[in-house]
Specification:
elongated; PAS domain S-box-containing protein/diguanylate cyclase (GGDEF) domain-containing protein; GGDEF_dom; PAS-assoc_C; alpha+beta; membrane; 5-stranded antiparallel sheet; 327 residues; Alpha-Beta Plaits; 53% helix
Length: 327
């Protein structure tokens, strides 16, 4: 549009220069100059208006961070909230022209580079980051997108980061009500499996699963009645909660079978904890004994919850067999 106006202006100007006494040509030239000025002013105001609105939105939000990098992974844009977040949780101040990888931990840097490289291939996508900083778990929804120039060539990557921590915590709180065992108020198996996936996403060094049940519970239940049996299950659940770390997920799988999911706790420590529970239960009125199995592995073992369960359950079965042989 602007080019057509310029060409038209040149033609009219040449005609007017050759015949400046022509009234119509003079008026046309004046009108064209006025129109051009108005058009350029409108274009400038429109573009800058959009920039001002976008800048206002990005800088005023307390939940939205924005950064962009070029083909060499150097920052080319940052909003103030992103700078504040980086300073608070990662201990550095990002600046235009710097590469973010040098300020991040190895795993965080690798993950960010993988996401940027994916966007540089022309893919727009979202990812969820679970950040454990200063004793708090944060949930960030990231939107990565390639940046194109006017020739549709990729020249960088932009990332919008939404803090969805409160939303995620509310979801988890609602899930807790859904995934709670009605008798013991412990978690059930469905929640345990979700917690297992979350621990894997957090990339804890150790994931440990304990499976435990009450020996001869059916006989006790038949002899003393279901009410007494229910009280024993509640007592067992309370004992497990008492000796396990606050971060442990204690769940009732069904009947008298319970499970404990531990993150960052190695096998020897887990075995010591369940032994404390075993000793406590033996001191009760019914002098109950328990059988248990423990399995521990790393988050990157490529094993699912069902694999952990099978291995821990198999160890519990062997524990029971050794007890019968001793008798």
């Amino acid at each position: 549009m602007a080019l057509l106006i310029v060409l038209l202006g040149i033609l009219i100007f040449e005609e007017w220069r050759l015949n400046s006494s022509h009234l119509i040509l003079s008026i046309s030239w004046i009108l064209l100059i006025c129109f051009s000025v108005i058009f350029i002013f409108y274009l400038f105001r429109s573009r800058n208006g959009n920039f001002l609105i976008a800048d206002f939105i990005l800088e005023s939000s307390e939940m939205l961070s924005l950064f962009a990098v070029d083909l060499n992974y150097r920052f080319i844009a940052l909003n103030q909230h992103d700078i504040d977040v980086m300073e608070e949780f990662f201990g550095f101040t990002p600046r235009i022209g710097e590469v973010p990888f040098t300020f991040l931990g190895e795993e965080e840097a690798v993950k960010l580079k993988e996401n940027i490289d994916k966007a540089l291939e022309g893919v727009t996508f979202t990812s969820l980051d679970i950040i454990d900083k200063k004793g708090e778990t944060l949930y960030w929804q990231n939107i990565f997108s390639p940046i194109y120039n006017n020739r549709r060539k990729i020249i960088g990557v932009s990332c919008i980061v939404l803090d969805i921590t409160e939303q995620k915590k509310n979801e988890l709180a609602n899930q807790k009500l859904i995934y709670q065992d009605s008798l013991t108020t412990l978690f059930n198996r469905r929640y345990l499996e979700l917690a297992f996936e979350e621990i894997q996403n957090r990339k804890e060094d150790n994931i440990t699963l304990i499976i435990a049940d009450l020996d001869d519970f059916k006989e006790i239940n038949d002899r003393y009645g279901h009410h007494e049996g229910d009280q024993l299950l509640i007592e067992f659940g309370n004992c497990l909660t008492k000796y396990m770390p606050a971060s442990a997920v204690v769940a009732r799988l069904g009947g008298d079978e319970f499970a404990i999911l531990l993150s960052g706790v190695p096998y020897p420590t887990a075995k010591m904890l369940i032994t404390l529970v075993q000793n406590e239960m033996k001191k009760g009125a019914h002098k109950l004994s328990i059988s248990y199995g423990v399995y521990s592995n790393f988050y990157n073992s490529n094993l699912e919850f069902s694999d952990f369960y099978k291995k821990a359950d198999h160890e519990m079965y062997q524990y029971k067999m050794r007890g019968k042989i001793k008798k």
